[in-house]
Amino acid sequence: MTTALTYRKDLFEERGLDEPETWEDLLHPDIMQDLALQTPQAAVGLAAALSINNARGGSLGDVQPVVDYYNEIQEGGAEFTDNFLAQFSRGEYGSFIRYDYSGLDLKYNNDDLAEENVGVALLGGENGKAGAFNALYGYALLANAPNPEAAKLFMDYVLSIEGQQHFTDAYVRPIRAPEMDLPDEFPPQSRYDETEFTIDQQTLVEQQEDIIQKITRGAGL
Hints:
alpha/beta, D-Maltodextrin-Binding Protein, domain 2, five-stranded mixed sheet, two-stranded parallel sheet, 10 helices, 43% helix, ABC transporter substrate-binding protein, signal, SBP
């Protein structure tokens, strides 16, 4: 799952806005005014914060770049909220930040919106910095499982190319995506390569509560 911006292409075109390529592009007044995102207490909100922070030169030990960014976009009208999909469909929000699959599913599986009116963009930072956090999703075998060999066979299938293909049906980019020919609905692999980054999960788990507190306090969330 990779952090992405989903936006109303029709509204952007009406406002004379190009497709965003960097997080700095979202500081345009006509984008900030109706941008929606979630606070870092939510996993997807933390992923967004880490994306922006990395793109602006921050680190797990320095989250001031995203704090400054959040303060600026709030002054411009951006809102932190958990409920924005219906409003996005009605045009009340022009863009929102979530994972790529959320935007792709909305683009191709929503009867209220024409797919050509929805764009999904992976954003980077200035000077080519990566700005799209790739959030890993755990897959585990339970200790003392009653049928461990059957479970291993199932895990083998899920991790096979055939099994991985099922994820793409829901617009989720699986772990073996670089080995696959993804449907045309996905952003090009080259864009993922340009913008995507990961973080050591153990380090993140150890520091995330402190990170969340620093961001929420600093940005008044």
